[in-house]
Every structure is written in C-alpha cells, then in structure tokens.
Amino acid sequence: MYTFRDPIHGFIEVSDLELKIIDSAPFQRLRNIKQLATTYLVYHGAEHTRFGHSIGVMHLVTRAFESAVNNYKKEHSQDLFSYEKYEWYKQILRLIALTHDLGHAPFSHVSETLFDNGVEHEDFTKKIMIETEIADKIREIGQENINKFGAGYDITPELLWLIYGEKSPELDSRYIMPDFKLLKSFMDSDLDWDKMDYLLRDSHYCGVNYGMFDLNRLISSLSVYQDERNNSLQLAVKRGGIHAFEEFVIARYFMFIQVYFHKTRRYLDHLLVESIKTILPNSKYPEKVDEYLKWDDDKIIESIKAHAQENNYANQFMNREVMSCVYETRAHGNQETDLQLFQIIKKEVRDKKIAIYEDRASKAAHKIRLEPYDSSSGKGIPILVKHSLKPSSISSESILLKSLINPIEIKRLYVKKEHMSTVTDIIKDKLDTDEREEDD
Predict the structure, then answer these.
(1) What DSSP character marks residue 139?
(2) Which residues contact 293 (CB under 8 A, 6 or more apart)?
(3) What is the DSSP string of 325-337?
(4) How, if at all, do strands 357-363 and 10-14 pair?
(5) CA-based nearest residue to 414, from 322, 337, 342, 335
(6) DSSP code of 230?
(7) For labelling, which of 22, 81, 307, 371 has a CA lying 20 to 30 Å from the CA of 272?
(8) How many domains does the chain have?
(9) Residue among 198, 189, 255 at smallest CA distance from 222
C-alpha cells in the first residue's frame, strides 16, 4: 500500500496497482489542470488541481460505499452483497472515481467550448481509459481480481465506462441490474461524492467557509434502500442525516454564488477562452487522444505569453486588464422584471457608443429532485425512517431545500474602467425611475 497525505481527508491509501494508474503520464497530466480555471487569479490560494481531487473522490467514494453497505447490514441483519461482490464493487467504484476526470481540458470546464462537434470532456475520458496505458493498468487490477475471486470478477476499462459513462447501459448484456445502477449513483446523482470532494477542496483552497458541511455525519447516515417489487437499489439517507444533507446542498449553492460565479473570475474565463482560440489549430482542441494529452495549463499559459504581443485578448489576460462589472441582476427574484431593466440599461449604454461585455451565469445549484421518492423511476431521494418499511422523501422532510427550487440566473454588464462614471450615472437614473414606478 502507498499513502498520500491529503490536506482535506488526511491519509489516503492506494494499492500498488492503483498507484501504477496514478503514476502514469495521462494521470500525472492532471497535476497541471487547475480545478477552478482562473479562480486562482481572484482567490490566490485556488491553485489546486484535478490530480488531488481525483484521489480525494476515490477516498470518499470508498468511505461512502462501505458506510452505506454496512448500515444496510445493521438494519436488515443480512449482507447486501456477498464478500466477493462487495470487494469487486468497491474496487470498481475506486477506479471509476480515480479516472473520472482524466479527459478534462486545460483549465477544466472553462475551455470545453473549444471541443469539436459537440464533444465533451467525458468523451476524452473514455478514450484515455481505453486507448492509453491506463487501460493496461486497469486490466492488471482486473487480473488480480480474477486470481482472487474467479473469472466472473474481471475489471476492464470497457466495464468501468459501461457503468459510469454509457447513456443506455441496461441494453448491454454485461450490465447487472440493479447493482451497477447503485454503483453509478455514488458518482453521478444527488448524493454523488465527486461534488462532496470538490466543495470541501474548493472551499479550503479558496480560503472561504461557504463549501463546508458535516461530511462525517452525512457518510454515517448513508444506507441502501431495496425495493424488490421494482428490482431497485438506491443510495439513501437515514432521517438523522437530513441536516447534514441540507448543509451540503446549501454549501453548493453558496459556492456558486460567491466563488464559481464570481464576477471577476467570469471575465477572466472569457479572456482565457478567447486567447486559447488564437492558439489552437482551427480554434479547437485536437481529436486524437495522444495530441490532446499534450495540452495542459502550462502549455496554454506559455502559448498565451508567446502570442501576447499580436493578440489583444492574450495581452489583456497576461496583464490582467479586466473590464468592470457595472450591473448585475439578482440571482433569484422576479426574472422578467430584472431582465427588462437589464435590457433598458444595456440599450442606454450602447446608445452612448460605449463598448460592453455581457455575461450570463446560470445553474441549478442543487439538482435535487424535490418530488416524492419513486422507486420505479428512481426519482427523488429515499429518506429512511426508523420502524417504517416505506421511505419518506426529501421533498417532505426539508423546508430549506424547497426554497432553492429556482435555478441561479445572473446577467452582468461589463465596461472599461474609463466609462465607469458615465455608466454608473445611467444605472442610478434607471434604478431611481424603476423604484418611483414601484412606489406609484
């Protein structure tokens, strides 16, 4: 076993074969892919990368799986899975978590607009898992599993992708229902541990408290709800863990408002993407995986520096020439009224022949299904109530989460600093007019 010392989770153990994946070139590339794009230019501590995050998610998903399965055993006095399946599924989850971000572009999500033909970073993750040395490392672990438990417990990159990445995996004869659907929920659901890690990690490195929640309480409250009528297994939360779950959702909401949608970070992201467009051939990342893997944050920055003299965007980015945000709509509220006022202000500014940049940031900050839990469709989160055979729903348990049903929607106007005074006067006049009309 090898041990990483992680600033969020403490000591994280990995097996010798898992370490081979971590030591591979495609995984080491993640050391040079920042988790939060240009956020480090606003929150100077946010230099963390997809490398540490991926290892952290592997650690968290292991803890979550072990807790949920163990709690199921305590509640039902029987094992959910045989020992062999338990170990097989845990190893599968660890590998999915470890490799889930392999395909990220430089500066993570921000430059994904430069993929070609609707490609997403997950498509490159699949290619890297299957077409590079990572595939051989995964198959080594699969062979170790075969040696331990038999031929039926193999692990391949194709199996990992079937469980985690395929759109309709149930059509494949290798797909085990409902077990594999349960496994995926640990990495892609309302309760996925990818989000759990990045909230805690981002909060720590940004030096803010917005992303904090009671991780240990939430993990200890996990279980599995089994509905044999619908052949379903679902990751569930015991009623005692609802407050920790609420903390998690609210933490995600505040991180979007305060960090991910920060006005300066959003503008810097814009400058970065426009700069990269001038660097890449045809303004797109290469499709071939071996060429794609050559691109990371360091190569992008060096290329931007080389183009700074002849490219205006590159020059602005390197010299941190940021336009000022002069107006933004509310994150929630009367969207129609906000939009009307936004359009009026924008027109007034343009009539003054002042150049503007317009940004729109939107997100469902929670993605929590508030409708009643339905085992047949998989909708909702089952909340396990002591002495009750039927689970409750988060919709009936949490008043707080009901208040977050509307997505975040922020529109912003930016102008150059020399126009701030003029534009501020326009905005004051329009806001005063709007307030007088409301009073009337």
Answers:
(1) H
(2) 25, 26, 29, 128, 132
(3) EEEE--SSS-HHH
(4) unpaired
(5) 322
(6) T
(7) 22
(8) 1
(9) 189
Widest CA span of the chain, in angstroms?
80
Tell me how far apart the terminal alpha carbons of the chain are, to the nearest angstrom.
72
CATH number of the domain to which 100 belongs: 1.10.3210.10
Contact 369, 379 (CB under 8 A): yes
pTM > 0.85: yes
Q: Which of 230, 125, 120 is closest to 181 using CA atoms?
A: 230
Neighbours of 389 (CB within 10 A): 5
Residue range 340-365: average pLDDT? 89
Proportion of the chain above pLDDT 70, given as a percent:
95
Radius of gyration of the chain (CA): 24
**Rounded to an integer, what distance in angstroms lies between the CA atom of residue 307 and that of residue 313?**
9
> How far is the C-alpha of 271 from the C-alpha of 140, rounded, in Å?
43
* Residue type at position 382: P
- The answer to whether the beta carbons of residues 236 and 250 sit under 8 Å apart is no
State the pLDDT confidence band at 417, using cuts at 50, 70 and 90. very high
pLDDT value of position 381:
84
Burial group, residue 95, by CB count within 10 angstroms (0-12, 13-18, 19+): buried
Give the count of beta carbons closer than 10 Å to the beta carbon of residue 282. 9
Asked whether residue 123 is domain-assigned, the answer is yes
Amino acid at 252: R
**Residue 41, in any domain of the structure:** yes
Q: Is residue 418 part of a domain?
A: no
Cβ atoms 202, 46 nearer than 8 A? yes
- The answer to whether 330 touches 323, Cβ cutoff 8 Å, is no
Q: Which domain holds residue 111?
A: 2-264
Distance CA 182, CA 390 (A): 19
Sequence-distant (6+) residues with CB within 8 A of 403 are none
d(CA 328, CA 360): 9
Alpha-carbon dihedral of residues 46, 52, 58, 64, nearest 10 degrees?
-40
Question: Are 97 and 21 in contact, with CB atoms under 8 Å apart?
Answer: no
| 408 found inside a domain | no
Taken in order 392, 396, 402, 407, the sign of the CA dihedral is: positive
Nearest to 313, CA basis, from 284, 266, 274: 274
Angle ∠(300,111,368) on CA atoms, nearest 5:
145
The pair of three-digit structure tokens given for residue 118, joined into one six-digit string: 């609707």
pLDDT above 60 for 367 = no
pLDDT band of 162, cuts 50, 70, 90? very high
